[in-house]
Amino acid sequence: MKNYYMGIDIGTNESKGVLIDETCKIIETATASHEVENPKPNYFEHDAEKVWWGDFCKISNQLIRKSGIAPEVIQGVGASALSADVVPVDENCKPLRKAILYGIDARAEKEIEYLQEYYGEERLEKLFNDPLCSSDCMPKILWIKNNEPEIHEKAYKFLTASSYLTAKLTGVYVIDRYLAISSFAPCYRNDLAIDRELTEELYCRADQLAEGRETAETVGYVTESAAKETGLKAGTPVVTGTDDSGAEAISTGVLKPGNLMVQLGSTCYLMYCSDKMLDDGRIWAGDYLIPGTFCIDGGTNAAGALTKWIRDTMYTEVVKEQESGGENAFGVMAELSSHIPAGSGGLVVLPYFAGERTPINDANAKGVFFGLQLHHTREHMYRAALEGVAYSIAQHIDILEENGLTIDSFLCVGGGTKNKEWLQIIADVTGHTVKTAKVTIGAAYGDAMIAAVGTGGFKGYDELEQYIEPGIRIEPRKENQKIYGPLKKIYHELYQKTKDLMHQL
């Protein structure tokens, strides 16, 4: 009898799920879409019960029904979700407010400034490893404490999304090493014990945080009540789970030092597996999902979200045609812009349309179209936006290489990989060969793999490599590299020369 494993990932605008067999073959997939709430500038939220748990239940039931696989032969379940988000829950795991989302939510800017002053530069760097920014959870918890004290006091646990899903499935409140050490700094020590003194000094009671566990560790079993809602069998093993980027990195083959993943979704996220820790304030560093390795990562807030904005504001007639049964709007946009040469006619975009995470770590940064002239069209602006994200990726790679780290494998994942010209732009701007995995569904696939590792389907992560098939391979074009060289220099200097003006807006 075959064994099967389920993985479900909750994303910013869409959730995905997969059911795989013991050879990592995908048996069935399912999706569910939802909206992001943006009640105020820099405020981004999800209804955790409706979106996170609602999507999980919907997808789980769909996978079981569509596949015809009996719940009894599903040997493990893994979940991932948005990373540095916060939802306070009561003792029944019922959310006490809307979940505050990851780095795109910048409401805690005052709290960040307070912590910077409170700790001082030297202690701050020691405690957080990386520059404090909107991707950290503790400023968000401090924001709740300052602005919603009754909720803060009533909270049984402050959870991130994957912790919430695992708790709903099992009744066990856990967080994996990757998220605990990085997103919930400085509250967890390297042994995953909660540092009571640091936690209770400013943020919350130590008992209000989840227990730290390894990512691929069976931490509980599906409860009777969760079984009724999800269609899973009560008693099915559940692993700790992790964030979407970590799970997607596993799914695409980031399994050893030298592997880099670039995730092209609503945001752009980079994850590099390293055999050594990096101390560079421009990017983030912490433990990776695979024991004994480290993760060097960074994020660009607006990638797919930027192209979506261009679509919805500049290509309204194309969107209407799609809604009437016409071609996909992004496909049409790609075709219309195919004649635009590298460099977009001297147009350079800073993709800081939702503030920015790394390497500038500035929640108040603003998006810029620089160099606009009368001959430029919306097609130039669209291509320039794609190039702007590529410049940001190149900026991160430069930092890795400055620190003596080499890139042996450059893997792109996410919805953005459907745009082959975007992949070519990234290859041309960075000068690296860009590859994809054959299976591109993303984090949900990695969740299922992690569930298989954690429940005994595989002895370790290294056994997964044989089942990850390669997709496409794109080589950089030397002629375009020459064009992008000077433009990259302008990109690097543009923020430094305009940031003071940005902060006045």
Explain this structure to me?
Helix 1 (48-67) packs across helix 5, helix 9 crosses helix 15 and helix 10 packs antiparallel against helix 13. The protein has 16 helices and 22 strands. It has helices at 48-67, 109-128, 138-147, 149-154, 161-170, 177-182, 196-202, 224-230, 244-252, 304-314, 316-323, 329-336, 378-402, 420-430, 443-454, 478-502, and strands spanning 4-10, 14-21, 26-33, 45-46, 74-81, 87-89, 99-100, 157-159, 174-176, 211-213, 218-221, 237-239, 242-243, 259-264, 268-274, 284-287, 294-300, 348-350, 368-370, 409-413, 434-437, 470-474. It is globular, with a radius of gyration of 22 Å. It has a domain at 304-395: ATPase, nucleotide binding domain (Nucleotidyltransferase, domain 5, 2-Layer Sandwich), CATH 3.30.420.40. Strand 16 and strand 17 form a beta hairpin. The chain is 39% helix and 20% strand. It is of the alpha+beta class.
Q: What is the overall number of helices?
A: 16
Give the integer mean of the pLDDT values. Answer: 95
Instruction: Classify the helix fraction into a percent range.
Output: 25-40%
CATH architecture of one domain: 2-Layer Sandwich
Rough outline: globular
N- to C-terminal separation? 63 Å
Strand arrangement, major sheet = 3-2-1-5-13
- The CATH superfamily of one domain is ATPase, nucleotide binding domain
Strand content: 15-25%
The total beta strand count reads 22
The CATH topology annotation of one domain reads as Nucleotidyltransferase, domain 5
The CATH class label of one domain is Alpha Beta
The biggest sheet amounts to: 5 strands, mixed
